[in-house]
Amino acid sequence: MKKTIGIIGAGNMGGAIYQILKQSRLVRRVFICDQHTNKISALKADNDSLSLADLLTRSDIIILAVKPQAFKDLADEIRVEIKNKLIVSVMAGVSTRIICKLLKAKKVARVMPNMPAQIGQGAIGWFANKQVIRTERLEVTKLLSALGLTIEFKKENLLDAVTAVSGSGPAYFFYLCEQLEAGAIKLGLDQKIAKLLVEQTFFGSAALLKDRNIGATKLCQAINSRKGTTAAAIGVLEKNKFAKIFERALLAAFRRARELSKLYE
């Protein structure tokens, strides 16, 4: 049986989830609420907008898409009994234990999406506490599959690694695009052409990586011919210990994710 979904928070992620589920055939109905009515209007979701109390009452599954720092105030507003509802949280850094404690809930799934989930191309890691039964886990998987690739983890602390890798990962990609485009312009290319070349290069490379299914290392080796232009560029990266720099950057993101998790304990 299809479920009714209630989304609390109409920001970037909450709004994207609303639009994707609204267009899908996965659910019976999608409701949304946000204290900022302009966000509801921007989504053209006025017909699906409810008060917090009504949304909690009428929804089978509740998706928490508010900012972590706003969660405690939200929890204080909840007066409806929701202990038997399935809660799906996309709040970064807030553990299932804290969500259960503040909402007096029992069944919680914690999700770490990333920005491409906004167009259904995300990489999504999630964890559910032991009170979430098998049929409910399948329901979560079905919902999240509309946002992209989904992987369930058996240990919640692994979501900190997911945050560092795929959660922050799109920013690493965009940063590299930015640097390659800037470099292209310094080499004399027009800004518009540089942008087109860089975007298509990354898009095509990602498509090739997925299509060939042989791994990034072998694909890199296929381009990196001895004494060629690619070898010259990779040599500079290796000489300046790019791999170590990137490892340290990833570790910094991981440690920060751990720190943020502890802020809400």
Automatic annotation (TrEMBL):
The record lists NADP(+) as bound by I8, G9, A10, G11, N12, M13, A65, V66, K67, P68
Any one GO CC term of this protein is:
cytoplasm
Q: Tell me one GO biological process term.
A: L-proline biosynthetic process
Q: Which residue intervals define the domain Pyrroline-5-carboxylate reductase dimerisation in the entry?
A: 156-260
What does the UniProt entry say about where the protein is found? Cytoplasm
Q: Where is the Pyrroline-5-carboxylate reductase catalytic N-terminal domain?
A: 4-93
Pathway assigned to this chain's UniProt record: Amino-acid biosynthesis; L-proline biosynthesis; L-proline from L-glutamate 5-semialdehyde: step 1/1
What does the record give under GO molecular function?
pyrroline-5-carboxylate reductase activity
Q: Which reaction does it catalyse?
A: L-proline + NADP(+) = (S)-1-pyrroline-5-carboxylate + NADPH + 2 H(+); L-proline + NAD(+) = (S)-1-pyrroline-5-carboxylate + NADH + 2 H(+)
What EC number(s) does this enzyme carry?
1.5.1.2
Q: Which family does it belong to?
A: Belongs to the pyrroline-5-carboxylate reductase family.
Q: What does this protein do?
A: Catalyzes the reduction of 1-pyrroline-5-carboxylate (PCA) to L-proline.
Return the protein name: Pyrroline-5-carboxylate reductase
Q: Which organism is it from?
A: Candidatus Magasanikbacteria bacterium RIFCSPLOWO2_12_FULL_43_12
Gene name, please? proC
